[in-house]
């Protein structure tokens, strides 16, 4: 029996996509960019915030200073400013002088009004320094703030001046993002997450062919349906990579030709030796290989599967066995290199040999979860009556087991880096522990604890409500896992999960399910003539 | 009270399965099946209660986890505190990643050994114990089904034998125990 892709399901999916798209557009309008801020500690222990930006800003330095001063006065602190753009370094170079026009670097030091004396001291210290561009409005505004701040003092007492300043910077240092970093990064997150599900299904079907396993024959058409997303996903990914190559987005730091140019002021010596790997021509050559291999094998498996329905016999089965084994070998290499190219190179300076496996385990578990959710939904619609409890139980075991593979690989990667404590490796986790701390640990905890506690028993793996609820939670948190892999290297600490992110996820989900169901409706849901079909229909565990 | 035990021997697991299904449908309780390999689905047919070995394994694993944690806390932090990977914080929690592999290994060790020993004890199959299977051929290529007369008072022993004979058996044996 074929799956009937009725107009009601189509309509619901279009509504889902429309809602996602509207949410995304709302988020897109409000997208903000930020000055890069970093807390620096002076020799005498004074903490300041260093703000930097290298492109055109919608406000001038003077406007920024007056805005910050106004907010600081309201909050009851005072701020001293020091322009950090060094003019000496670029002397006599016309090209770089033009570049310098956009350069913004400023050191902001917060003072609570009680310590006005130390404030004066710091100021003097700054004037002693040889920087001639010191902008110091702190003095006069400090006096005003003192007068106003008296009655406000108790309300801000809970926050240190530093916290208040960071709060002010977060608001005043934000401006409309013309580069749309969040949108681009999110496109990559969703494109990769859903492409990964398709790829996980392709790997899974190849694994079953190569091992000649009988238990999963009833799942074959479901897997083929999910693989149907691969061409669409590949096009979306290729567009994002193309945009990166054209510098429409700046997700990949190494794509900037300046970074690889030893003559340039932005030359990046750390990755200079990786230039052959991190180069446009190699990236695109490998992309052709990744997409070519995945799509060709996907097409071949599907073609032979439909052919087997008509012809029967074991010839096709043996051919699938050989092709499946060949695909696993290629996939072993390609999935690792692919994840280095596409994702690991976002955090350009960092490297981990385990990364490919970690990405792969995420792909695999997401695919398993989606298979289960789809099967239960379709059973609810009255299809797939031949998938019995034992089949569900077996797929549930995969979901359970691969969740631990994922945790195991996360931990292996983390522990080795934590133990060795080498600067070039720990940066990756320092970025994630800084501003992504709660979301990172929530993800690890959810993706590990929920399966181990709730999916351990035999009954849980067979129960529809348990699998549906846990599956939905894990599905979302494996999306968040991809989010944490990409965001710290592309939007730094200015991440958020707001309407933009949710909208785009919902839109992609709708499109993905639409494509999968469309592929499913094109062939009978149960294969014919598979040598293990009869054995599988009587499957019992 | 004397009890009659009837042993029905089959040369194929599917034949035994069909026979068991037939007997059970007539309301006969099949006490035990001896087989050289697992027969999928037989436990549902003859109504064997699901094993609790999994629960035991979980408890053994939990024991291992706690033992490992307590021991390492004592060895590495309390008794003689160690500088772990240049991180001399002398706190179990802050050095936790270093302890996870051992915790994991010891959990698995305890769960696996505990489970094996429990299994052997419960089945009375520790090395050197007398065999409990009725016929040595059930470790080779024969399948034996055991029916006790005392558990099937609805029928007489003769009736049960007749019913068993109607299934695809190769041998029928009867034993009287006190």
Task: Describe the protein's topology.
The complex is a heterodimer of chains A (541) and B (178).
Chain A: H1 7-29, E1 32-34, E2 36-41, E3 47-53, H2 61-75, E4 77-83, H3 94-100, E5 104-112, H4 116-128, H5 138-149, H6 153-156, H7 161-172, E6 174-176, H8 181-210, H9 220-227, H10 230-245, H11 280-311, H12 315-342, H13 355-380, H14 389-420, H15 423-435, H16 437-454, H17 458-462, H18 464-490, H19 499-520, H20 533-537
Antiparallel strand pairs in A: 1-6, 2-3, 3-5, 4-5
Chain B: E1 3-10, H1 13-25, E2 32-34, H2 42-46, H3 53-79, H4 96-122, E3 143-148, H5 157-166, E4 171-177
Antiparallel strand pairs in B: 1-3, 1-4, 2-3
Helix pairs in contact in B: 3-4
Rg over C-alpha atoms of chain B, rounded to the nearest angstrom: 25 Å
Number of strand segments of chain A: 6
Number of helices of chain B: 5
Helix-strand category of chain B: alpha+beta
List segments of chain A where confidence is low: pLDDT < 50 over at least 5 consecutive residues.
94-99, 116-156
What does this structure look like?
The complex is a heterodimer of chains A (541) and B (178). Chain A is α+β, with helices and mostly antiparallel strands and 541 residues long. Chain A has two domains: 7-29 and 179-385 and 497-530, no CATH class; 33-176, no CATH class. Chain A is 64% helix and 6% strand. In chain A, strands 2-3-5-4 form a four-stranded antiparallel β-sheet, with helices on both faces. In chain A, strands 1-6 form a two-stranded antiparallel sheet. In chain A, helix 11 packs antiparallel against helix 12 (315-342) and helix 16 runs antiparallel to helix 18. In chain A, 38% of the residues are buried. Chain B has a four-stranded antiparallel β-sheet. Chain B has helices at residues 13-25, 42-46, 53-79, 96-122, 157-166; strands spanning 3-10, 32-34, 143-148, 171-177. With 178 residues, chain B is an alpha+beta fold. In chain B, helix 3 runs antiparallel to helix 4 (96-122). Chain B folds into two domains: 3-50 and 135-177, 2-Layer Sandwich (Alpha-Beta Plaits); 53-122. Chains A and B meet through helix 14 of A and helix 4 of B.
């Amino acid at each position: 029996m074929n799956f009937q892709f009725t107009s009601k399901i189509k309509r619901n999916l279009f509504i889902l996509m429309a809602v996602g798209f509207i949410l995304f557009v709302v988020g897109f309008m409000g997208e903000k960019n930020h000055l890069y801020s970093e807390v620096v500690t002076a020799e005498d222990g004074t903490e300041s915030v260093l703000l930097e930006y290298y492109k055109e800003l919608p406000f001038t330095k003077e406007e920024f200073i007056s805005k910050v001063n106004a907010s600081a006065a309201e909050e009851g602190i005072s701020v001293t400013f020091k322009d950090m753009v060094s003019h000496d370094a670029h002397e006599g170079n016309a090209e770089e002088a033009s570049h310098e026009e956009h350069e913004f670097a400023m050191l902001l030091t917060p003072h609570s009004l009680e310590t006005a004396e130390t404030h004066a001291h710091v100021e003097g210290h700054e004037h002693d320094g040889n920087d001639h561009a010191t902008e110091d409005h702190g003095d006069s505004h400090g006096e005003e703030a003192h007068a106003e701040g008296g009655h406000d003092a108790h309300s801000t007492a809970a926050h240190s001046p530093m916290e208040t300043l960071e709060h002010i910077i977060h608001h005043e240092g934000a401006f409309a993002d013309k580069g749309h970093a969040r949108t681009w990064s999110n496109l990559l997150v969703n494109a990769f997450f859903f492409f990964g599900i398709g790829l996980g299904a392709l790997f899974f079907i190849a694994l079953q062919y190569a091992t000649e396993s009988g238990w999963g024959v009833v799942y074959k058409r479901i897997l083929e349906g999910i693989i149907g997303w691969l061409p669409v996903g590949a096009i979306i990914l290729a567009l994002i990579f193309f945009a990166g190559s054209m510098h429409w987005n700046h997700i990949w730091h190494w794509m900037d030709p300046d970074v690889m140019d030893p003559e340039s002021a932005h030359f990046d010596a750390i990755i200079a030796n990786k230039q052959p790997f991190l180069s446009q021509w190699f990236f695109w050559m490998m992309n052709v290989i990744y997409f070519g291999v995945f799509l060709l094998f996907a097409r071949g498996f599907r073609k032979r599967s439909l052919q087997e329905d008509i012809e029967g016999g074991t010839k096709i089965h043996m051919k699938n066995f050989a092709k499946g084994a060949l695909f696993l070998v290629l996939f072993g290499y390609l999935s690792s290199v692919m994840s280095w190219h596409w994702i690991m190179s976002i955090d350009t300076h960092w490297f981990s040999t385990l990364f490919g496996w970690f990405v792969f385990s995420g792909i695999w578990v997401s695919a398993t979860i989606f298979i289960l959710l789809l099967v239960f939904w379709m059973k609810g619609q009255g299809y797939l009556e031949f998938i019995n409890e034992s089949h569900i139980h077996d797929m549930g075991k995969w979901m359970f087991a691969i969740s631990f593979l994922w945790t195991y690989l996360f931990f292996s990667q983390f522990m080795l880096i934590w133990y060795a404590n080498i600067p070039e490796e720990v940066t990756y986790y320092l970025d994630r522990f800084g501003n992504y701390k709660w979301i990172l640990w929530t993800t690890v905890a959810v993706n590990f604890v929920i399966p181990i506690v709730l999916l351990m028993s035999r009954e849980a793996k067979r129960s529809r409500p348990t699998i549906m609820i846990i599956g939905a939670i894990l599905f979302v948190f494996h999306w968040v896992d991809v989010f944490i892999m990409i965001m710290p290297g592309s939007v730094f600490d200015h991440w958020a999960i707001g309407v933009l992110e949710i909208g785009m996820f919902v839109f992609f989900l709708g499109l993905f399910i639409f494509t999968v169901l469309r592929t499913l409706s094109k062939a009978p849901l149960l294969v014919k003539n598979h040598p293990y079909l009869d054995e599988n229909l009587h499957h019992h565990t | 009270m004397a009890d009659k035990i009837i042993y029905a021997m089959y040369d194929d697991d599917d034949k035994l399965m069909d026979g068991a299904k037939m007997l059970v449908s007539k309301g006969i309780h099949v006490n035990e099946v001896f087989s050289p390999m697992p027969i999928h689905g037989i436990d549902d047919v003859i109504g064997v209660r699901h094993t609790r070995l999994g629960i035991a394994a979980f408890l053994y694993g939990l024991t291992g986890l706690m033992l490992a944690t307590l021991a390492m806390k004592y060895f590495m932090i309390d008794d003689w505190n160690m500088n772990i990977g240049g991180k001399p914080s002398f706190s179990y929690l802050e050095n936790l990643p270093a302890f996870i592999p051992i915790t994991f290994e010891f959990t698995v060790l305890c769960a696996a050994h505990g489970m094996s020993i429990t299994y052997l004890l419960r089945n009375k199959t520790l090395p050197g114990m007398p065999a409990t299977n009725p016929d040595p051929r059930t470790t080779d290529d024969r399948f034996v089904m055991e029916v006790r007369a005392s558990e099937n008072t609805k029928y007489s022993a003769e009736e049960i034998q007749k019913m068993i004979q109607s299934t695809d058996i190769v041998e029928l044996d009867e034993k009287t125990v006190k």
